[in-house]
Design brief:
mainly alpha, 386 residues, Serine Threonine Protein Phosphatase 5, Tetratricopeptide repeat, disordered N terminus
Length: 386
């Protein structure tokens, strides 16, 4: 009987010592944190977290959160753990929900923790997205949803961390992963809550255009246009729809509206010029291309289209002149045609400056130098074409 009592006594002493050892790991972690010995703090706190005696200790959750927040927020320690903010969030969520939390911690401190970690998760989500680590980016954003029920003072919303902003970022992730179905789900959530960003309608329209679903594409584009009538990006999305259908009449109307809203956008004037070009409205195409070049003098596409348009139109006029039998009239028509062709020379030369390897440009230059009698330039270009 005495022997049995001794065994029980030894077991009790050992168990008490083991519990004390684990609690001392919690205190040692805190002391190491205070002394900025972060690696040591991590070692102690993870020993405590792994042991059933202290895994749900209220102080363990608090200190673990503090340690990992220090790693996340301090540039000297960031490399120790790239997902420190996620571990911090898990610990502080457990702390907030702990039955003894009110006894040990002030409500304001707990609320501040929720705000800090929420903003940290949001910023980390963006950083991982920019680094193309979409899996971790998604984890960061999704974890914030666990914080919203704990954010009693709506501090996260005041910090621009909202469900809507997370849905938008989750859309960007799924879009980058080319997961159209999931992308549409997040956009639908935003549309259903009337999220005030015209781009979501443009994104939805573009997804449906990519999927060759013209009916739904136009439905969302039109819906967005009703809400944001003068938004240039939505106008351009609708414009792209009509351009894909070769509907240049509708394209022209939209482009005229777009340039009114964004008169310094060289791309819009270029698109307008291209539409007029397709409609064979030479004068209006010329004006639009010149506007684009006036805004951006090294805009290759506009320089090229304008130069080639002069060249082609002059060439057509030259072919017409060849059918004239009266010599004087022929000579006059020929000179007029050549002058129009040569009007494109400075624009084609500028294209050559920007890209001296474009063979089409070299061929046009060769013809134009022949027409204006510039023999040295003609020979130079001829050599390049050999």
């Amino acid at each position: 009987m005495k022997l049995l009592n001794i065994v029980f006594c030894v077991l009790f002493v050992f168990t008490s010592y083991n519990t004390y050892a684990q609690k001392s790991n919690v205190q040692n972690a805190y002391r190491a944190l205070e002394k900025k010995k972060i690696e040591e703090a991590v070692e102690y706190i993870e020993l405590a977290a792994a042991n059933s005696k202290t895994a749900n200790d209220v102080k363990m959750h608090n200190y673990r959160g503090k340690i990992y927040y220090e790693i996340y927020s301090n540039d000297d320690y960031k490399t120790l753990d790239p997902i420190a903010i996620l571990k911090c969030a898990n610990s502080w969520i457990s702390l907030y929900n702990h039955p003894k939390v009110k006894k040990w911690y002030d409500k304001d401190e707990l609320n501040a923790n929720i705000t800090k970690v929420g903003v940290g998760l949001f910023n980390s989500g963006i950083n991982f997205y920019n680094a193309k680590d979409y899996k971790l980016s998604k984890e960061m954003f999704n974890k914030i949803f666990d914080l919203f029920p704990l954010d009693e003072k709506n501090n996260l919303e005041r910090s621009n961390v909202t469900k809507e902003s997370i849905w938008l970022n989750l859309f960007f992730i799924s879009s980058a992963q080319q997961k159209n179905g999931i992308s549409k789900e997040y956009l639908k959530k935003l549309i259903d809550v009337n999220y005030q960003d015209p781009q979501i309608y443009a994104y939805m329209g573009n997804i449906y255009l990519e999927e060759k679903d013209d009916e739904n594409a136009l439905k969302y584009i039109k819906y967005g246009r009703e809400l944001f009538e003068t938004d240039v990006n939505l106008i351009i999305t609708e414009l792209n729809y009509y351009l894909s259908k070769n509907d240049y009449v509708s394209s022209e109307k939209l482009l005229k509206l777009a340039v009114e809203e964004d008169p310094n956008n060289h791309q819009l004037f270029f698109a307008l010029g291209s539409s007029y070009d397709e409609l064979n409205d030479f004068k209006k195409a010329e004006e639009a291309y010149l506007e684009a070049i006036d805004i951006k003098s090294d805009f290759y596409d506009a320089l090229y289209n304008l130069g080639v348009m002069y060249y082609n139109r002059g060439g057509d006029m030259l072919n017409e002149a060849n059918n004239i039998k009266d010599f004087k009239k022929y000579d006059h028509a020929k000179k007029k045609a050549e002058n129009l062709m040569l009007k494109g020379l400075p624009y084609i030369e500028k294209c050559h400056e920007l890209d001296n390897l474009d063979k089409n440009i070299l061929l046009v230059l060769k013809e134009l130098y022949y027409r204006n009698g510039n023999n040295s330039k003609y020979k130079e270009i001829s050599e390049k074409l050999k």
